[in-house]
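Section: Multi-chain targets

For targets with more than one molecule, the full set of components is provided together so that the structure can be written out for the assembly as a whole rather than chain by chain. Components appear in the order listed by the source. The example entry contains two components.
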Amino acid sequence: MTSTPDLLHISNLHKSYQAPNQSTHWWPRLFNTASTSQIKAINGLSLSIAKGETLCVVGESGCGKSTLARLVMGLEQPDQGHINYQGNNISGLKHKQRQDYRQRMQMVFQDPYTALNPRLTVLHALVEPLLYHQPQLNRQNAIDQAMAQLLAVGIDPALAQRFPHQLSGGQRQRINIARALMVQPEFIVADEPLSALDVSIQAQILNLLAQLQQKQQLTFLIFSHNLAAVEHMADRVAVMYEGQICEIASREKIFNQPQHPYTQALLAASPQVYQAPNSHHKLVGDVPNRIPTQQGCSLQDRCPKAFETCRHQTPKAIEMATGHQVACHLVADPTSTDPTNHTQAELEQGDHHDSSH
Amino acid sequence: MTSPLLKVTDLHVNFISRWPNEPNIDVLRGVCFELYRGERVALVGESGAGKSLLATSIIQLFDSSARIRQGQVTFEGQQLTQLKPKQLRQIRGRRIGMVFQDPMTNLNPSLTLEQQLLECILSHRSISRAEARLVALHKLRQVHIPAPEARLQQYPHQLSAGQRQRATIAMALALEPALIIADEPTSALDVTMQAEVMSLLTHLCHSNGVALLLITHDLSLVAHASDRCLIMYAGQIVEQGPTSVLINDAQHPYTQGLIKALPQMSSPGQTLFQIPGQMPVAQELGNHCAFATRCEFAHDRCWQQTPTMPTGNGHRASCHLLTAAQAGDE
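Its structure, encoded as tokens over all components, is:
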């Protein structure tokens, strides 16, 4: 074990789903006889999170962020690979064995409007997980704890008897966070906690998360595509594409010296108030659907800097500096390409591939 | 000076109350703004400020319980508020195109793109189906949809989210409108798709001379995608002006708060500025400044009198602090 033991360690994780049967004829669809393909949602992903840190995972929709969140929480089972929590493998645990971990890790879901049961009052929603995990607890005691938690997330306890539809979006997201904190977890997974909220409410939630982390020494795994918020709260940032981590580094490294073309493109696409938009690192085309198992780098068709090696060889993660890993052939061998002579051809090829699926 | 393409004057919209003894409360409270040909105007505000209601009020696409109580909407010299439904239909889609937030619910899932695009074109223009198809193909190419012939035969679920939103932009453009109203066109999209859709809208507006009314809650998005900016709060426009001026020199405390609340505005790890409290609902609005409940500079006058927007063309805001400062200068 190292000096700062990892709270969570994920190694070589794989998860695929059955692709919908694309056959146009009713017979193979009904009996599922046509050859169906697999969608690889998570494709050999490795990651570790130290205790007390905030790791933000960024990426476009469809890159497998939510699948990863659900795998970590045990809501889905991986096909292959391990998820170790404090040294114990927790993937593939049975329901009963999982109970203990469910108390220690909690999740905040993306949409505060659908994550709360519309038929439960705020108080009921908060007390329920507590009584489930600690059935011996006195009811009044549980209610007191819920009230204290409401205060901790900045909600007036007078709202405890309200139903979700009587609350604003920011209040609902606070209730979601309060509910996750009810069982005193040490690890929080938040799947796009800000994307459904207005800018002014985002600030409130960001402050709340920072404040709670300081007070309770929480570890956060946050999935987001809001780069401004990520820059504000992350200790480390992992950039995800096609079910793999393409770059992982400290916040300063990612935002000041991004190495992977995809990271550069994401940063360039993020709107800035006082800086003119940067159009140098533009991606072409859309996120491909992952059914065709093509050779080479998964970004090859969209990357403006792709060259020959990218077509037939999958890049491996390379440690550039301590804690800064990049999976890109360009970084591995910067002399192998001249970025001036192929851009137009690559652009056309990107478009062509895009239209074929 | 040329006359504005769209002119909204003192627009009040309320919802008819379901109960006879409850008063109808104005949700839009005296909105005034102008929009010129080829101009890109951003309408910024929190959810519940009345942004979408304003957009739908312009072409009267709102809920049947909403009524324009007072005010005028003038578009290309026509009074839209006095038109009959049939005349309005001539303007919707043809002169004013609309792009909605969620492309999945905006497109009909059971019709192919061709059916939807052609329906839109043929209901306004008397041309043959073959000609309409050519128009549709041309528009799909304009929005950079690859292989448009094949795409026309596909259903919305077969497109990616970015392509779907581009298809709705193609549909809004199909009849060469003078104005496009885009209601949060990128909220459902990723940053990369957002950048693409925004650059596409900007490019199309420049090349076709189309005016754009862009509705959003994200100030960082409008910073480089609009010429002029309107800040909306509780059913009123509280500040307006050229985007670059407004962002660098915000006058109204609400706009200042919105900018300060952006995560980019403070160094990582620092506590972000947050506007305390939340926007009052229409019933709670009294005869005072709507922002007074959350404003750190609120003084006696803010609680006694509603501030008014100064007349003029440039950068201006409706706030008692500013009128007091100007009076002091004089």
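The interface with chain A takes residues 46-47, 146-147, 150, 160-163, 190-196, 198-199, 217-221, 223-224, 247-248, 257-259, 261-266, 268-269, 271-275, 278 of chain B (CB under 8 Å).
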